[in-house]
Amino acid sequence: MTLTQPDLSIFTALESEVRSYCRSWPTVFNRARGSRLYDEDGHAYLDFFAGAGSLNYGHNNPVLKRALLDYLERDGITHGLDMSTTAKRTFLKTFQDKILRPRDLPYKVMFPGPTGTNAVEAALKLARKATGRETVVSFTNAFHGMSLGSLAVTGNAFKRSGAGIPLVHSTPMPFDNYLGGQTPDFLWFERLLEDRGSGLNKPAAVIVETVQGEGGINVARAEWLRALQDLCRRYDMLLIVDDIQMGCGRTGAFFSFEEAGIKPDIVTVSKSISGYGLPMSLCLFKPEWDLWEPGEHNGTFRGNNPAFVTATAAIYAYWSEGLLEKQTLANGEHVEAALCDIAARHDGSSHRGRGLVWGLEFARPSRATEVARRAFELGLLIETSGTRNEVVKLLPSLTITPDELDEGLRIVDRAIRETV
């Protein structure tokens, strides 16, 4: 692909230095459809990023776009705070009938604000309110958001340093396989809980990702998650699953914890819940924990009605018959086989993942960034993850075609070969 020099002057002159993704992909994007984006010069890019997991159904999905345009053309409510609207009613009923009831999950639904970190903040506040305790246990290499409460349960030192103040009332524990299988699961955690001299205040809750996306595609085993739920029940701690990036079908099932057969007390959902990249998040919790006073947690943009419309359309289109789940698992097996072959041919690399979230780790951490940069030059958008950006992260849309999936995997393979 021959790239012309794009005009980035207004971005470099006016936009804050905090911008990040645009530094990895130095072009100006203009339009997108399905699994491809196009810059203003007409160059096409295959998308293995999917809006950091916000576009599980692809860019400008025609089914969702039609529902959104119809709603806007009839002057449907756009901004509604927490007022009752027809769009919200339809979403809630659809979510209950198609997602919650078939999974025997009698959760209450809270709209805490438009972003994932809003949902995490609500979950932490609710757990503390319900138990009367302050400490929340998180895990090594976790990422839960960029606001202060979410940063307090995030592991990444660079992200945490941006807070500018001490991040307190949280305690990290080893994630699954953090110690390489050298000690039994939760040995240290349970010992601290048992010992009144350990210095660990009894936690209100434990917050966990089933797959740590930003932490390096670290996958928790189903048995580890079941053991964690058992530990929480035995020691009267609420279990919070952060399903913001791994939910909405990313690992196959709608919720990433379904495979483990657990039922968390609280679940946070965002990113692809709207289906269209529109800001929306949910905090789900068991009815006995619905202890909020009216207005005790709120936000101006928690009633994003256009997002309710596209979310409803996405559920009807992709979660009524279970076909997407089967397709995602099949595509995941295909990706796994391809990455296994790639890793076998390139020393110093290894792979891991579930469903359609996969990581390729390099022993020389800087190589992952080099691979991602070369992939961009070849027309593929991928990012890196992990504390040292040592993992190439593959996050295609769930609706990607087999040909597009193979095309992207070939580009990854070529980028690795050309960055020895």
Task: Give the topology.
Elements: H1 9-14, H2 21-24, E1 29-33, E2 36-39, E3 44-47, H3 50-53, H4 62-73, H5 86-100, E4 108-110, H6 116-131, E5 136-139, H7 148-152, H8 157-161, E6 170-173, H9 187-194, E7 205-208, E8 211-212, E9 218-219, H10 222-234, E10 238-242, E11 266-269, E12 282-285, H11 305-318, H12 323-345, E13 349-354, E14 357-362, H13 366-377, E15 380-381, E16 383-385, E17 391-394, H14 402-417
Parallel strand pairs: 3-15, 5-6, 5-7, 7-10, 10-11
Antiparallel strand pairs: 1-2, 2-3, 4-12, 8-9, 11-12, 13-14, 14-17, 16-17
Protein model, in words:
The structure is a single chain. The longest helix is centred in the last third of the chain and has 23 residues, at 323-345. A hairpin with a 2-residue loop joins strand 13 and strand 14. The chain starts with 8 loop residues before the first helix and ends with a helix. The chain has 420 residues and is of the alpha/beta class. Helix 4 (62-73) packs antiparallel against helix 11, helix 12 (323-345) packs parallel to helix 14 and helix 13 packs across helix 14 (402-417). The chain has helices spanning 9-14, 21-24, 50-53, 62-73, 86-100, 116-131, 148-152, 157-161, 187-194, 222-234, 305-318, 323-345, 366-377, 402-417, and strands at 29-33, 36-39, 44-47, 108-110, 136-139, 170-173, 205-208, 211-212, 218-219, 238-242, 266-269, 282-285, 349-354, 357-362, 380-381, 383-385, 391-394. The protein has a seven-stranded mixed sheet. The model has no long low-confidence stretch (mean pLDDT 97). Helices cover 36% and strands 16% of the residues. It has 14 helices and 17 strands.
